[in-house]
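Per your request, structure below.
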């Protein structure tokens, strides 16, 4: 309680009217949302990177059999979705080629088959990217909204100050004037204290997500190269 009482922002909140308190509470709510989204996304992205390294190790041990390794323990990981897309598409194309083959020789994938698999992998990666971007727009919105809420509080506090000055000078009027100025400055400070961490969080998460997407693309290229080595016919 002593810390709150000594806090100028809390003191400005205490001296504010109902509308001013609403602005303070709104900014506090935006701050809570910012930190909840950032912490949740940060842990998700960190776990994705850690498990991604383990999946890479599994792939390196089974790269000669690209359709035969098990990722059941990583079902919710984007690499698993990419692998399942590759496996399903490759098996479907091999079965199609086998059905039209005139003999029982080993079937292969054509260049167009490889391109089709690659297109499906890119679609899967795009879908995974959308999942990871979910709710990031909220941070971008808070970055823009918080300073404007702070500015609204500033203008409202100044209006209250001028209103009290017009009513004359008295002990109560002086207190009201100081309260209006405190609210004006307090909401400005709080708006910036909300917007700055939101901006840092948004840019940090977007940068980390860009690395994750690049890793997904690299993993898909490794998978596709392995499938191509095993199943594409080489013309001699």
């Amino acid at each position: 309680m002593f810390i709150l009482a000594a806090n100028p922002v809390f003191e400005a909140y205490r001296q504010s009217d109902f509308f001013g308190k609403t602005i303070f509470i709104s900014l506090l709510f935006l701050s809570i949302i910012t930190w909840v989204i950032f912490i949740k996304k940060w842990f998700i992205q960190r776990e994705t990177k850690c498990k991604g390294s383990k999946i890479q190790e599994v792939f390196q041990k089974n790269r000669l059999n690209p359709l035969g390794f098990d990722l059941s323990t990583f079902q919710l990981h984007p690499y698993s979705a990419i692998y399942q897309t590759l496996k399903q598409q490759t098996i479907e194309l091999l079965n199609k080629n086998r059905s039209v083959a005139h003999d029982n020789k080993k079937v292969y994938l054509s260049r167009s088959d490889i391109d089709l698999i690659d297109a499906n992998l890119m679609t899967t990666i795009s879908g995974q990217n959308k999942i990871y971007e979910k709710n990031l727009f909220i941070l971008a919105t808070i970055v823009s909204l918080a300073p404007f809420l702070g500015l609204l509080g500033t203008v409202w506090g100044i209006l209250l100050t001028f209103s009290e000055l017009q009513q004359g000078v008295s002990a109560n009027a002086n207190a009201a004037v100081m309260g209006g100025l405190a609210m004006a400055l307090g909401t400005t400070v709080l708006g910036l204290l909300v917007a700055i961490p939101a901006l840092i969080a948004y840019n940090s998460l977007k940068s980390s997500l860009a690395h994750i997407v690049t890793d997904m693309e690299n993993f898909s290229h490794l998978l596709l190269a392995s499938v191509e080595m095993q199943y594409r016919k080489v013309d001699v």
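Residues 1-5 have pLDDT under 50 and may be disordered.

Regards,
D.
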